[in-house]
């Protein structure tokens, strides 16, 4: 150990989160209809597998891009040789046009303000390096994606200060919560450099309202700080209200003529909307030339391969395909989300009303033995080990209220989702009959305890899952 760096030996990566423990248990005993029908079903993975047939159909009809050909001639050597880190112009043009299409072409993007990165993980970390020094802070509304504790903090040294949102208003961001988080950071002698939001939210599956976006812009204007809008799920919005990008609100407020224009940055990826996390395609969009220049230099540590860019530039440039894909994918997500919500409802479990994403924010507070995070962990362990479903407990998302869970629905077949719902329904019946729920333990007084930094600790691992 003494021969290694402090980074190699520190415990700030975030792998000791219960979020990662669920993945570890799934990998040891993963469900397979034939080989392991009693295994753990993966419902902790925000992956979109519902529209692969549309992508595969396009590839069959367009063999040249996948074969690295142009006009019948091989361009393999051209793609195999060194490409500079600015990216292929044709791909950047196709990507910004796809981003505009998702937003109903109400806003446009300049490819010269885009930096390509190896996924949204790399994009968010690169922005941290560009915008903050070690020991400075970003404010994040809770609940938030557990991987942010790794992505934003581990190598950068940047701190996260939570903006505590609650179920009383469906976890919407309020001015009071923003100011409280800012004050908390000051009390800890942390200089706040910005706010980071995910829109649509992971894990809530909801879009930020126009009023929330206006509140955020006003807040960062007053404080003189940055705003990062991670819009990785922007193409998954399947119900009203529709998606509103922060860029739309900036233009509505004529912010392009103000100083705040350069302090708002967008993160995007094709991991969710196209279901291509393995392709490692992410992007930073910023109006600040210095941020773009610095991030472009940093992107050399995590480039998108030229072969990937060439293939996807052809696919995204096919406007007939992208129009049909966006529409059909959203329909499929809506149907699958409804299947989960209705199935859970029949099991006596409710969900936060959502309109986007690949997951539901599920309320199981009534199944807790007591109103504590210890009880949440107790329930979660039963679901993982006994029910054999890997879901993500709210505490891993830094939720301030015990009993919420993120449950994914787009990474499996309908048949597997049906089985998962049946398992959970059977568990609820047995759990309630045995008197384990909070309603059956009303005489036991319990004091709600503060959210722990991490709930469980894991042994060292070779790798951790990366949804993004």
TrEMBL record:
Keywords: Ethylene biosynthesis, Fruit ripening, Lyase, Pyridoxal phosphate, S-adenosyl-L-methionine. It catalyses: S-adenosyl-L-methionine = 1-aminocyclopropane-1-carboxylate + S-methyl-5'-thioadenosine + H(+). Residues 41-424 form the Aminotransferase class I/classII large domain. The keyword Cell cycle does not apply. Pfam families: Aminotran_1_2. Coiled coil: none annotated. PROSITE patterns: AA_TRANSFER_CLASS_1. Its cofactor is pyridoxal 5'-phosphate. One of its GO terms (molecular function) is pyridoxal phosphate binding. It comes from the Eukaryota. Its EC number is 4.4.1.14. GO terms for biological process: ethylene biosynthetic process; fruit ripening. CDD domains: AAT_like. Pathway: Alkene biosynthesis; ethylene biosynthesis via S-adenosyl-L-methionine; ethylene from S-adenosyl-L-methionine: step 1/2. PANTHER family: 1-AMINOCYCLOPROPANE-1-CARBOXYLATE SYNTHASE 9, BIFUNCTIONAL ASPARTATE AMINOTRANSFERASE AND GLUTAMATE/ASPARTATE-PREPHENATE AMINOTRANSFERASE-RELATED. Homodimer. Belongs to the class-I pyridoxal-phosphate-dependent aminotransferase family. This is 1-aminocyclopropane-1-carboxylate synthase.
